[in-house]
Amino acid sequence: MAADSKKPAAAVPRLRPLPNLIFMSRWLQLPLYLGLIVAQGVYVFHFWVELFHLVEAAFGNDAALDALIKSAGYVPTAGHPIVLNETVIMLVVLGLIDVVMISNLLIMVIVGGYETFVSRLDLEGHPDQPEWLSHVNASVLKVKLGTAIIGISSIHLLKTFINAPNLSDKTLMWQTIIHLAFLLSAMAIAAADRILGAGHNGKH
Questions:
Q1: What is this structure's pTM?
Q2: Where is 122: in which H helix or E strand?
């Protein structure tokens, strides 16, 4: 009879009560990630409401057009009729892209954070396993979150410049400065992660 090639599973070490309590406290993060899933659902609902308003406005619904203009923060030129022009469409579409990017950020936090800080998801071999999840850790997660925040900030800045005639110079200046601060922060995090990673690898 052929010998069984399967190796016995490694025994899980028993922890003393206090270390076990401290280690089990990681499950307190579970309600936080479940709450982010609820927030994700709210973003999905908001996305479809905005998209439905855009389609209605394209077919001449004045109430939907008014809702779009208010949500986009667009101020029509005085004396001109309120119409669904290219600027309004662009602001609404950028708003939809913004929702998608924030939703992507939520997925990274939920999936990556749970995998890193709470428990393994055991997705190895699953056809839908995210590529980045196979090598995710706290450092990688920070860099990816920083990159996602820069993308979201870029969308907001683009919306600001498209709607620039309706905004003050002070608002434009501060949004540009804040975006640059996000960019520099992400670069600093990535540089620090590379330096620490190189130092860690040099010790082995």
A1: 0.72
A2: none
